[in-house]
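FW: tagging you since you asked about this chain on Friday. Here's the raw sequence from the shared folder, copied in full. Didn't touch anything.
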Amino acid sequence: MTYRFEIDRVCASLARCAVLLAATLITPAMASPPDLPPLVEQASGEHHVGKVIWVELVTPDMESAKRFYAGLLGWTFRDLPVASSAAAGADETKYTLALLDGRPVAGIVRRSVPAEGRAQPAWLTFFAVRDADDVGRMALAHGAKILAEPRSYGRRGRQAILADPQGAVFAILASSSGDTPDVLAAPGEWIWSSLLVRDPDKDTAFYQSLLGYEVYDLPSADGREHVILSSDDFARASVNAMPDDSTHRHPHWLNFVRVLHAADAAAKAVALGGRVLVEPHTDRHGGQVAVVADPQGAPFGLMEWSEIAEQGSAK
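HL: got it, structure written out here
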């Protein structure tokens, strides 16, 4: 799946998001990590390396985020206790779980925006791995940077935060309870993730070596490169070339949530205080997609789902 973006607006937003992600994750505000629940309620041996299995929002205004996503997607929330360092003081980090019909679908981390720069909130994408430490070392060997060293989080597992060779921020998670099963996302759940980069071949090779993807080229009417990353016979994500004349060129991951009607969801996002970055339009998979930002500025996609299969040839 690919999308035709007003690329400058989205890249400008994500460039500022990357600054907040890096600042938040490098700053050791928590004396001890939150006791995150297991990814899978009933532990299993199911593992899907390379699958996006979790997302987290880093934002300075947790209550505003709760109101927005509850109104837009029907999420409810459960705050988790976090032991903060004395240095954090009143600006302590807080963590809440977002739930859909009682199932965890995302995490929200409250952190203030750094005084310097134009950082803004962002969604962080977590990929399934079997061993976070080994994959972290492999990523470093292939040109990535470690933004947050591997660390164990309660019953969730062990995770680390990295920036790929072109600077796109992402996370890896070795779930202690197994990975979520490969089923179609319900409306209100995350359904797709896309990477926008200057050099798709370079980052495609990086993620392929790191996570063992099969890689498929997609035909493109815009003349730019679009690639599908696949594992276990499921498409996991796409890598897409930025336009050569893009003013803002910070590589970034963008996550899409499934909705029944993208146009209605985009309008509702605006009514709730968000804004539209990319107007709803028909994508190559046959459904409507849009890109919006929440009231604090965190961008994410809205995607309808259709059964039209993607076509491509394996690399």
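FW: The radius of gyration is 18 Å.
HL: agreed, and Confidence is low (pLDDT under 50) at residues 1-13, 23-29, 86-91, 309-315.
FW: great, closing this out.
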